[in-house]
Amino acid sequence: MTERLITNARLEATCFTPGQLLPEEKDIPEIAIAGRSNVGKSSLINALLGAKLAKTGQTPGKTRSINFYRAETPEGAVRFVDLPGYGYAKRSKDERNEWQRLISAYMNGRENLRLVCHLVDFRHGLLKNDRELQEWIRDCGKNILVVFTKGDKISRGKWRSTREGYIRDGMYSYDVPVITSAEKKEGIDALSESLVKFLKNYDKISES
Ligand SMILES: Nc1nc2c(ncn2[C@@H]2O[C@H](COP(=O)(O)OP(=O)(O)OP(=O)(O)O)[C@@H](O)[C@H]2O)c(=O)[nH]1
Ligand SMILES: [Mg+2]
């Protein structure tokens, strides 16, 4: 087993309203995890952190709050931010507005937010509301990395061609999307490595 790059994870806060959001902390970069309901955001956070800190569930709409997790990496402390999922049809209009309000309150002007990992179900690729989310993240001036989830649902022999097809269809992602399976713990080390490298290079870029 390779040594873990992300260690000492803990839940810092669970926030249901804009007023509850944690203020930014100096020198603590943030990586947000966004995507449709049920795509596997909380499961991926647990896999990355190596601890069952986030609640996961079979019914979409499990996470309704913004959850902050603090962890250590070779590049220093980092915050992972688990965002509530979108695109869950059974939500009322009021709930959807609430979601928009909470996410906007977090994203707008969030200087320490370095990267949004946009999780996409590997079986489906980017759907209409995924494309809308990408536009909106871009409007906020944030970097996007697409991360495919539930890779175990597609046979290994089809991974490359499936990913190539999605890339051809078009998407924003600063690097080649990583294919993961939180269930089978596949692609997790590769993603951790890529995130830590991103943080390292980001600091270099902003210093120069
Ligand atoms: N087969 C498979 N199932 C997964 C994987 N990751 C998550 N799941 C399942 O997908 C369902 C949703 O997972 P969550 O992690 O709760 O999804 P989420 O995106 O946080 O969902 P919301 O909080 O509702 O937005 C659960 O039943 C998980 O067990 C995976 O890599 N492979
Ligand atoms: Mg969740």
Main features:
208 residues; alpha/beta; binds guanosine-5'-triphosphate; 32% helix; single chain; Rossmann fold; binds magnesium ion
List the SSEs and their pairings:
Elements: E1 7-15, E2 30-35, H1 41-49, E3 66-73, E4 76-82, H2 93-107, E5 113-121, H3 128-139, E6 143-149, H4 159-169, E7 178-179, H5 188-207
Parallel strand pairs: 2-4, 2-5, 5-6, 6-7
Antiparallel strand pairs: 1-3, 3-4
The protein binds guanosine-5'-triphosphate (GTP) and magnesium ion (MG).
Guanosine-5'-triphosphate (GTP) binds at residues 35, 37-43, 56-58, 60-63, 84-85, 149-150, 152-153, 181-183.
Characterize this entry briefly.
Helix content is 32%, strand content 23%. With 208 residues, it is an alpha/beta fold.
Overall description:
The chain is of the alpha/beta class. The protein has a single domain, classed as P-loop containing nucleotide triphosphate hydrolases (Rossmann fold, 3-Layer(aba) Sandwich), CATH 3.40.50. 32% of the residues lie in helices and 23% in strands. It contains five helices and seven strands. The chain has a seven-stranded mixed β-sheet, with helices on both faces. Helix 4 links the parallel strand 6 and strand 7. The relative contact order is 0.18. Guanosine-5'-triphosphate binds next to helix 1.
